[in-house]
TrEMBL record:
<dbReference type="InterPro" id="IPR042099">
    <property type="entry name" value="ANL_N_sf"/>
</dbReference>
<feature type="domain" description="AMP-dependent synthetase/ligase">
    <location>
        <begin position="10"/>
        <end position="375"/>
    </location>
</feature>
<feature type="domain" description="AMP-binding enzyme C-terminal">
    <location>
        <begin position="426"/>
        <end position="502"/>
    </location>
</feature>
<dbReference type="Pfam" id="PF13193">
    <property type="entry name" value="AMP-binding_C"/>
</dbReference>
<dbReference type="Pfam" id="PF00501">
    <property type="entry name" value="AMP-binding"/>
</dbReference>
<dbReference type="InterPro" id="IPR045851">
    <property type="entry name" value="AMP-bd_C_sf"/>
</dbReference>
<dbReference type="InterPro" id="IPR050237">
    <property type="entry name" value="ATP-dep_AMP-bd_enzyme"/>
</dbReference>
<dbReference type="InterPro" id="IPR020845">
    <property type="entry name" value="AMP-binding_CS"/>
</dbReference>
<dbReference type="InterPro" id="IPR025110">
    <property type="entry name" value="AMP-bd_C"/>
</dbReference>
<dbReference type="InterPro" id="IPR000873">
    <property type="entry name" value="AMP-dep_synth/lig_dom"/>
</dbReference>
<protein>
    <submittedName>
        <fullName>AMP-binding protein</fullName>
    </submittedName>
</protein>
Amino acid sequence: MFDLGTTFLQSVERNPRAPALVDDGVRLDYAQWGERIARVAAGLRQLGLARGDRLLSVLQNRHEAATLHWACQFAGVVIVPLNWRAKPEEIDYCLADAEAKAVFFEGVSESAVRYSTAARAVPRIGIGADATGATHAWDEFAAGAPDGLPAQASADDISLILYTSGTTGRPKGVPRRHRHERAAALAHVAQNLYRRGERTLGVMPLYHTMGVRSLLAMALVDGAFVCLPRFDTQRALDLIEAERVSCLYLVPTLYHDMMNRREALGRGTGPGPDIASVTKLGFAGAPMHDALLRRLQAAFAPQVFVNHYGSSEVYTFSIDQDAVGKPGSAGRSGVNTRLRVVALDADGVDDVVGPDVEGQIIVDLRGDEAFEGYWKRDDANAKSLRNGWYFTGDIGYVDRDGDLFVTGRVDDMIISGGENISPVDIESVISLCPGVGEVAVVGLPDERWGQRVVAFVTRRAGEAALDAQTLDAHCRSSDLPNFKRPREYVFVSEIPKSPVGKVLRRKLTAGEYTPLAGGANPAA
């Protein structure tokens, strides 16, 4: 298999004048971008970074970050991208754990880098005038004479290390080889039906597998990566219209915010920004509730609407290319994947459950997209890797048609009165109630039931009258079993989420929210 540097060279050779990279004030074709990448690769070598060395990147999705990612692939250097909101202690930990030899940062991450003890001991390359405290300025670092684009890496070299969010302990490094990354990008192209010359909105962060996948997939199809450094609903809509973006791959939260903004604009001035260029929608990272699926289908009328279920460790678990046709379904295993659902208490991999029975979702590690184990974490490997299979930590079931439904995380399962209750199907029902913006369901301690089902809800604009009684009546009139019906509704201004849009249920269970009027315990 080709390494990733050679993969980029394919586009340079095949279609050198095709639009490749768009950012504020920057517009490059593949030949021009290749020259910039060559200069940065030369800069890495001048820093003393050699094949197999690691560097930290603490950057937003700007053109320099995308260029650095590709330069590392050519130089054989392992990029370790971190959340640009990282704290000094997170930088300290990841620098030491990855044994990184340089840090790239910008103004928004300058303070964290400045107060990182470990960062003081390595070269610090600053991007932009407000990236003070750098040992090297990007403009000088990237201005050297390029010596072509020789690929220094092989397909078996490590391409990058992604660090998990670490919500339950120390973050875990996920090393992925060039062949893993290329196979995942090829699968992404196939599963989303991308064609040559696609244009995507590059807003999912490059420290997240979804953002990396969008970047690599565009090179495979001679497509354009339209940078959006951080998500802004109006800016996203403007870029879709101005750059004729053809495909979107986002977490549900970003779609939700974008639809709210577009609908608000439409009520005031007409139909809202033009989104007709978008023909392919994809989402991942979290379930998408039925109401949002319907809104997106009505707004975009896409040719393909893909629910992608996967992780950093194994990019694709399963896909459904008609997300609206069977709401909630994660479809079937991807082109490089095998999966199973085994008993909730299973230690082995052969205790497969029958149709419609909830269990643990596990994935075959022999797949081309699968990693081989966590970075220096034998404890994590022992927990998640068993007999050649990856235990995802997710719960789900396969229906009688053979389609997978993901019902939650093992840690999110609510046990009330001895019943196992998944939050996902409850959230889908509540999302269909008129006036609901977002919803997250958790289990809170209860003296009688062990845990009681509690729904946290935001109201859509102009729906101040929505209250607990209305929601309870809606749930009673649905097909939701009574034992799953929420015993309490809490209205909040926002649902807490991670930087990439995943709902942080732990914050709700810890009481980290501000309640609004209208919540209540409805009659049992």
